[in-house]
Amino acid sequence: MDPVKRVEGRAIPFGQKNVDTDVIISAKWLKTVSREGLGAGAFESIREQEGNIFDDPEYAGASILIAGDNFGCGSSREHAAWALDDMGIKAVIAPSFSDIFAGNAFKNGLLAIALPQDAINRLMEVAKTDPVTIDMESMSVTSPFQDRFPFEMDAFRHQCLIEGLDEIDLTMAKADAIKRHEITSDSAQPWLKPAAA
Amino acid sequence: MNQPKTLYEKIWDAHVVDQRDDGTALIYIDRHLVHEVTSPQAFEALRMAGRKVRRPDLTLAVPDHNLPTTARLDAEGNKIPIADPQSAAQLEALEANAPAFGIKYIGASDINQGIVHVIGPEQGFTLPGTTMVCGDSHTAAHGALGALAFGIGTSEVEHVLATQTLQLTRSKSMEIRVEGLLGPGISPKDLILHIIGVIGTAGGTGHVIEYRGEVFEQMSIEGRLTVSNMSIEAGARAGLIAPDDKTYAYLKGRPMAPKGADWDAAVAYWKTLPTDAGATFDKSVTINAADVAPTVTWGTSPEDVVPVNGTVPAPESFADPSKQDAARKSLDYMGLEAGQALRDVMVENIFIGSCTNSRIEDLRAAAAILDGRKKADNVKWAIVVPGSGLVKAQAEAEGLDRIFTDAGFEWREPGCSACLGMNPDKVPAGERCASTSNRNFVGRQGPGARTHLMSPAMAAAAAVTGRLTDVRELTR
Question: Please, what CATH class does the domain formed by B172-242+275-291 belong to?
């Protein structure tokens, strides 16, 4: 994974609450065996509507999406994170995220930044005309108008993102501890091994 | 005496491989279910990195999401090709990846095939006190047997395949205590829809829910699976119900469950799992069972629930302005008006199936309503999709298939079917479906499809009258 230290650019002031992953990318796009090309299907049911915000030339090339509470709820499909990435989105800012979506975003270096609703309201205004900056080192979101909103992030995820660490490599380094757990449970709970059907 | 612990804390503590100072932990995963949609990119990444599956023996693969539910073999027993080339390629990828990585695979025409969340418990792969994952958010279902089970994304699927662990932050604990028992004609599906209506789709975010109260003790394992399945619709990654004698009776003798002395040792351990007296939860919600009516959804979020004898709410009735806006959009999408009686809403499609409601008890409940009756003329399409080959065989042995087909339903092969608008089973744009599935999102059952979630008996009642109906009017 490439390190992510800073995301700067125009933000789409979408603002909707409870955006489910079926809306981000519908099931017909999930038949692929690749992670690529899903941007074409992102927010399809919304993009069918005339005058929708995703096709507004004002936000062409935007790298940030601003949304409402509970972003990414519903299905666990990581295709939602891949689709956002493929449409050029590098960060989503919202008051809250579903647990599974936040995890999927993290694994793909897509920032899921949680900020209070009043900060979101302000950034929605800024986004209409100006860019927004997310700085991972100072852990803050800023605007050209001196707005500065600090955010929190799980320390482990923060470190992985700014250093571009591969999580499987990190876990592989704990192979001895994993083996110890397996040896202990094999002797204490031999029934844990599925019976041969 | 040790500090009292919740069921969740006991399972979590027993699976910590490595604890980090920042609060995250490396957690061992005892069971991994794999299906065709969320696994191909994970297997490909393993291949690219030259990695193996650490514990193929703890992994079980089965196709379900993409599989058509029409006949799979012709009269000569040959495989019928799948028309959609992309679906066919994805199914072939799983069929090739499973043996290539040494994973047990249940094929499309095997009688044991079915929806991942139906076959896990059915095969005895799901066990109390285990950690279980699958690249599907409805993995929460398995919490019905006291397993800590949750959905993961494809990168996490890859991580579990490679390491048999996940890096996790401990969730908060939430108790949903239900006081009293459900009234006649009220099902576990009505209860969980009501609960989601009370706490909202983000009510359980960051939490693992434990469902507590006599209603769950009296509930069958099938009913518990329906409840825990929809925990994710309340934002909780996992649900839990304490294992008890019903759980043990359900699991005993299942093909992959422990046998002999192993069985006795397992039961002795499982009996230590229920939440200790005096253990505390981070959040607690009390629900009155007497408040639960036969329930349907009116909007495009699972929290948009109303008793079937109620009316469509006015957007202005919600306090939150963004909810008002969402309600307006939902009503527009659903083609409904504020104040309209739900019982006047006509339906053209009926879907009985999905990982929420496709088990034998669900089919029995629907068949009890349909026995000797026919679907209404305005119902154009009605299908029953058993959750597994074994459920299908059991239903046929009981003659349920005849009741369904005599009533005008199609009797299908097991799979996810019309729950998600992926395989050929879809609801046409602008039409309504009385559906026993779990999500009424925009476009979920097909572009423009209008979903009303409900119980199997309620879906059967809607088929008979051609409109949303209180099943108690048809109960004999």
Answer: alpha beta
- For B440, left (φ over 0), alpha (ψ -120 to 50), or beta? alpha
Tell me the per-residue pLDDT of B134-153, one tens digit each, with 9 for 90 and over: 999 999 999 999 999 999 99
Are the C-beta atoms of B418 and B385 separated by less than 8 Å? yes
Q: In chain B, which residue's Cα lies nearest the Cα of A100?
A: B152
Reported ipTM: 0.96
The alpha-carbon radius of gyration of chain B (Å, integer) is: 22
Of B155, B171, B259, the CB nearest to A195: B259
Minimal Cα–Cα distance from A150 to chain B, Å? 19
A26–B301 CB contact, under 8 Å: no
CA distance A181 to chain B (A): 6
Under 8 Å between Cβ of B135 and B39:
yes
B305 near B193, Cβ under 8 Å? yes
- Tell me, yes or no, whether A139 lies in a domain: yes
Chain B residues with CB-CB distance to A183 below 8 A: none
Question: Where exactly are the structural domains of chain B?
Answer: 7-170+245-266, 172-242+275-291, 295-473
Contact A31 B30 (CB under 8 A): no
Domain of A65: which CATH number? Answer: 3.20.19.10
Pick the residue of A35, A70, A171 with the most B CBs within 10 A to test the interface with B by mutation.
A171
**B295-473 is a CATH 3.30.310.50 domain:** no
Among chain A residues, the shortest Cα distance to B266 is held by A191
Q: What is the pLDDT along chain A (197 residues), one digit of tens a residue?
A: 899 999 999 999 999 999 999 999 999 999 999 999 999 999 999 999 999 999 999 999 999 999 999 999 999 999 999 999 999 999 999 999 999 999 999 999 999 999 999 999 999 999 999 999 999 999 999 999 999 999 999 999 999 999 999 999 999 999 999 999 999 999 999 999 998 75
- Chain A CB contacts of B59 under 8 Å are none
CATH label, B7-170+245-266, candidates 3.40.50.920, 3.40.50.720, 3.30.499.10, 3.30.420.10: 3.30.499.10
Q: Is residue A172 part of a domain?
A: no
Contact status, residue A77 vs residue B38, Cβ threshold 8 Å: yes
Rounded Cα–Cα distance for residues B228 and B211 (Å):
8
Chain-chain contact of A76 with B137 (C-beta, under 8 angstroms)? yes
